[in-house]
Amino acid sequence: METRRDIFQAIADPTRRAIIALIALQAMTPNAIAEHFDSTRQAVSKHLRVLSECELIAQKQQGREIYYSLNVNKMKEIDGWLEQFRAIWETQFNQLDEVLQTMKSRKK
Amino acid sequence: METRRDIFQAIADPTRRAIIALIALQAMTPNAIAEHFDSTRQAVSKHLRVLSECELIAQKQQGREIYYSLNVNKMKEIDGWLEQFRAIWETQFNQLDEVLQTMKSRKK
DNA sequence: TAATTACGCAACCATATAGTTGCTTTTTTT
DNA sequence: AAAAAAAGCAACTATATGGTTGCGTAATTA
Asked: Which UniProt key words apply to this protein (chains A, B) (predicted)?
């Protein structure tokens, strides 16, 4: 079990997905973000750190405030991973049956 | 911290993503899948259970063997979540700067 | 029918994770 | 200059997670 810190692990948490959706619309400070959730500012800050570490979000200091914004480009990596399955779901038919038929005929 | 069991949590694990990619090509038994990894069959079985619980995979008994196959339709849900960001990354410009400018002018 | 194979299930363990509270630093306001 | 606000950092806690080994059961094969 190695310590993972990638986009997939980052979007696994529902709070983090909510944060992503929130700042996608407009850059926000940790306090402003925390107001949308039940948990403390510190908890939100931890999520922001996870998102930062995998570069899903960027930050910009503005006086004593820090604005966090979504790095939409990084989101494309998830899209890239999905790409390999897109071909499959576009030509979906009962794949399992197909495979099992093939296997049966091979045994003969 | 509630116990989650959704597609996003399911694809967070790299081994599970590998399993998904593997059975996307053709339905496989737990033993056959486990051969592709370093961990034990039981560990793989646990991953298969997680994937089953969120309906990302389907199983079909064939004698004493169980063939697991990808439920490509469920994969579309990830695509659906990404949908909301697609509009943003298609019209990407420096959003953060934009927002900060707006906020500055509002203060005046 | 006895041995083997495929697989799920349960118990257990170490580590990761999400959350908390408390403290410090820096910037802004009074 | 003092008080307040914004946010990071550290320590700590409970629970989730990924892994293991061992065992039971059902289907094959010898």
From this structure: DNA-binding, Transcription, Transcription regulation
